[in-house]
Amino acid sequence: MSSTTPSAPNSTGADPFGPARWIARPVERSQRVTRHITSSRVDWAEPGHTLGQRFHAEGPVEAVSISLSEPRGVEDPFQSPVKFTISLRTEAGVPVMQRVYDGPQLVWDYFGIVLDVNPPAPPGEYIVELAAHQGTIGWLGADAAPAVEDDGVSPLPVRGTALIDDEPTGGVRLLGVDTHPAPNPLFRRSFELATLPVAAELAATVLGIGNVLINGRRVGGEALEPAVTNYDRTVLYRTWDVRHLLVPGINEILIQAGRERYGARGGDVWGWNLAPWHREPVALLNLRLTGIDGRVQSVTTDASWQAAAGPVQAERLFRGEDWVLEVMAPSGIRLPLSSRPAANSAARHMNRSTPPPPGSEGYNDPESDRNGSRFR
Fold first, then answer.
1. Can you give the pLDDT at residue 356?
2. Between 318 and 98, whose confidence is greater?
3. Which of 214, 254, 326, 345 has a CA 20 to 30 Å removed from the CA of 126?
4. What is the DSSP string of 64-122?
5. At 209, is the secondary structure helix, strand, or coil?
């Protein structure tokens, strides 16, 4: 059975991905980040007062991040002594984690406060609280959290009430909650060739990083690619000649996806898990096959691909990976596969009207880059 799809011949400067769609493996809500990362206001806590945020954790809480505003009314926030306490407790009042900040601080950058929760706290209802002791400290927030549809790959919104001196107030505060990540995904597709093509060009990118294998042999020798970009604007990709990897009959493409800075997990002061583009790993691929008669066919990423958890059971940026080596490639395993674009991220259709110039490896997103500027 042939699983290739006819496509138009390629031309110089044409879109290298054609009808391909971004694919991702949806995961349980308990394995995704909960967060609110945009602000439209600052609430202030003077000495003797508190600010708080209730939230619901779908999975075990491994780290909590908040974004504070520098002390009000000081000349140099990095040299001004302050004292405040950040605490995490259950809604019933049971303390989970507490840290006191005393003296001049460097935590005024975006999401500069991180509480590691070790051992992780179980799923449930929690309150994170800022108590000011010296200096007037602000906590960034917004008047309301937008309603979002759960696509199975995006972070979850913060569900809970903002507090001032333990009394509910409107809106939601900037908060990130990291749980145990899902395994890194594998994506698989088989296709049949009656005869070998005269040319076979593969265009692919995996976010955060990844490898492509054809018939068990890795494509290319690059490592840790694509390079980090602002994924909402530009995504890098490569093309390869892969004719030598194909055989007459059944062929298999396997994508091994990693997280790196696109799907980063693990709370830390750099906050990559709170970047606006953050989603579960995604992949985009187009294999163009030119027959002896000049006819071009394509094998592309779409909803027909198989997806499964790979051997990397947990990848945390700067904190290493957990492997289970007995996990096999997902032969015969069919799991739900999302081909829907993830809103406001690189996991969308790429720019069709402004393709990259010949020789460029950049791809621009028109919904983020209205001016049509190109990667250089």
1. 30
2. 98
3. 345
4. EEE-EEPPTT-S-TTTS-EEEEEEEEETTS-EEEEEEEEES----STT-EEEEEEEEEP
5. strand
